Amino acid sequence: MSRSEQAWQIMRDAILSGRLGPGTALKTSDLQDLCGMSVSPVREALARLVATGLVTAEHNRGYHVASLSADDLNDLVATRIREESWALQRSIELGDEMWEARIISSLHIIQRLPREKPTDPILYDRQWELRHADFHQALISECGSKVTLAFCHTLRDQNDHYRRLSLTVENGRRNAGEEHNDIAQAAINRDAKKAVDALAQHYNETARYLLETANEGLLR
Amino acid sequence: MSRSEQAWQIMRDAILSGRLGPGTALKTSDLQDLCGMSVSPVREALARLVATGLVTAEHNRGYHVASLSADDLNDLVATRIREESWALQRSIELGDEMWEARIISSLHIIQRLPREKPTDPILYDRQWELRHADFHQALISECGSKVTLAFCHTLRDQNDHYRRLSLTVENGRRNAGEEHNDIAQAAINRDAKKAVDALAQHYNETARYLLETANEGLLR
DNA sequence: AAGCGCAATATTTTCGAAAATAATATGGAT
DNA sequence: ATCCATATTATTTTCGAAAATATTGCGCTT
Which residues, including other chains, have CB under 8 Å from residue A93's CB and lie 6 or more apart? Predict the structure, then answer.
C-alpha cells in the first residue's frame, strides 16, 4: 500500500475515532509525526479527506477537521434518506438473488458482531462500522446508478463522522438490530414502501439519538 | 492565486476544451510543462479533478482524463434531473424576490451573450459555459440543502465534460434559449410542475443532441 | 491602557532531486 | 519464431529543504 493511502487511513481513523476532534487544526508537521512520513503523502491524503467532507481546507491557512453542527446533520440525514430511498426502491425492482444473498449475509454479520465495550474513553469500533457500511451498501447496490452510489458513499462517510457525537458517552449506541432486520425483511419481500419507511425511520432515529446524547462541546 | 489553483484551472480548461481528450494519459512531466510549475501543485490539482470526476487515478499508474460513455452520460443526466428537480421544487417553495432576481439576471446574460463562432477546430466558449452554470445554479440555489447543492455542482461539472462531444462538430450547439426561458418563467410563476418538466426536457434534449452529434471516436 | 507598525516565529506551499514502481526492450532457450 | 527472464528506461511517488505566506510578540505612539 502506498504511503499516501496509509496516511489516509491513519488520519481518517483518527478523525472518526475522535482523537482528532471536530474543528482541530491539522498542522502538517504534527501529521507527519502521526503518520511517520514526509509532507507530500500527507497532503495527498488530506486532499482526499477534503473531497469526502471529513476535512476542510482554507487556502494558505491549512486544514481543519470538519466541524459538526445540528443543522448540517439534519441536512445530511434528510438527503441521505432521499437518495437511499430512491436507490433502495430501484434495487428492489432490479436486484436478483445475489443481491438478496448479500443483504442476508451482511445482516447476519452485524448481528453476530458484538460491539466493543466502552472501556476506552475514546470508543470506536472500526470493525462494526465497516460491516454496518457493508449492509447499507448492499441494500442499495443494485440501483443501477454509479453516480448515485458514489454520492451515497460520501454521505455515509460524513454521517459516520457524526457517530462520534455519541461514542464518547457512556452507553455506546442504542440497539438498532431490529431496525436493520425490518429493512432487510421488507427489501427481500420486495415491499418497497415498507422498506423505504423502515430505512427512513432507522436514519431518523439514529440522528435523533445522536443529537440527544451529544456532548454539546462537540457541536459548533 | 496559489500555484495549485492555477494548475487546476489550466488543466480543467484543457480537459473541458478537449485539448486533453477523454482517456488521455496525464504524465506529470508534461503537466509540469503545461502549467509551468513543479510536480507538487500539479498533483494537488489532479487530486481535486479526481474528486469532481474529470480525471481518474490508478495507484502507481498515474492519472487519466476521464473517458466518456453513453451509459455514463445517461446515468449522469437521469441523476441530474432527479436531483435538480427536487432542488428546484424546494427553491420554488422557499425562494424570495432575490432568488427571482438572480434567475432573471442570469437568464438575461446568457441570452445576450452570443456564443463564439466555431472558427477554432477546438471550440470552447468558456464565458458561455460559466454563465450557463450560473443560471442553473440560480434556479436551485434556495433549496436549503448544502450537500445537495454540492452534489449538483459536481454533476454539472461532469456533464460539462460531455459537452465536448458536440463542440468538435460543425454546428456548435442547438439553440436552447427558449428552453431556458420556459424554465425561468415557470419557476418565477411558482409553477413547480411546469418548471420541473421544462428542466427535465432541457437536460434530456441536450443529452440526446450530444449523443446524436457525437464524434464516435470520443466515446468509450 | 489601546492601537499600530515591524520584526521574529510558525506554518503552508513549492521546489528539485532521490527512491520506488511500472513499462519496455534485449537476449537466450526451446 | 515464440516465450520467458532480466536489464534498461520511463514514470510515479516520496523526501528534505527552500520560498512564500500567515501568525505572534514586542516596542512605540497616542
Answer: A192
Q: Is B90 helix (H, G, I), strand (E, B) or coil?
A: helix
Q: Which residues of chain A neighbour B79 with C-beta distances below 8 Å?
A: 145, 147-148
Lookup: cell for B94: 422557499
User: Which residue in chain B is spatially nearest to A145 when comparing CA positions?
Assistant: B75
Q: Which three cell numbers stand for residue B90?
A: 424546494
Across the strands, what pairs with B25? Answer: B64
pLDDT tens profile A80-114: 999 999 999 999 999 999 999 999 999 999 988 76
Pick the closest to residue B95 from B52, B60, B142 (CA basis).
B142
In this model, does residue A117 exceed pLDDT 80? no
| Count of CB atoms situated within 10 Å of the CB of A216 | 6
Task: Let me know: does B161 contact B66? Beta carbons within 8 Å.
Answer: yes
Q: What is the pLDDT of residue B169?
A: 52
What pLDDT digit, counting tens, does each position of A125-136 carry? 788 889 999 999
Residue type, B6: Q
This model's pTM is above 0.95? no
Return the closest nucleotide (C1') to the Cα of A58: C12
End-to-end CA distance of chain A: 36
- Range A124-142 burial, b when 16+ CB lie within 10 A, else e: bbeebbebbbbbbebbbbb
Q: What ipTM was assigned to the predicted interfaces of this complex?
A: 0.91
Dihedral angle computed from the Cα positions of residues A182, A188, A190 and A196, in that order, rounded to the nearest 10 degrees: 40
Q: Does an H or E element contain A56, and which?
A: strand A55-57
The helix (H) or strand (E) run that includes residue A105 is helix A97-112
Report CA A159 to chain centroid distance, whole Å.
5
Nucleotide nearest to A46 (CA to C1'): C12
Regarding predicted confidence, which is higher, B30 or A171? B30
Give all domains of chain A, ordered by start, each with its CATH number: 3-65 (1.10.10.10), 70-218 (1.20.120.530)
Whether A175 shows a pLDDT value over 90: the answer reads: no
Mean per-residue pLDDT, A140-145: 98
* Å separating the CA of residue A3 from the C1' of nucleotide D8: 27
Q: What phi and psi, each to the nearest 5 degrees, are found at residue A57?
A: -120, 140
Grid coordinates representing A11 are 488520519
Instruction: Look up residue A216 and give its DSSP letter.
Output: G
Check residue B54 and report its DSSP letter.
Answer: S
Query: Strand B63-65 relative to strand B25-26: parallel, antiparallel, unpaired?
Result: antiparallel
The residues that bridge with A55 in the sheet, in sequence order, are: A65
Q: What is the rounded average pLDDT of the residues B81-100? A: 98
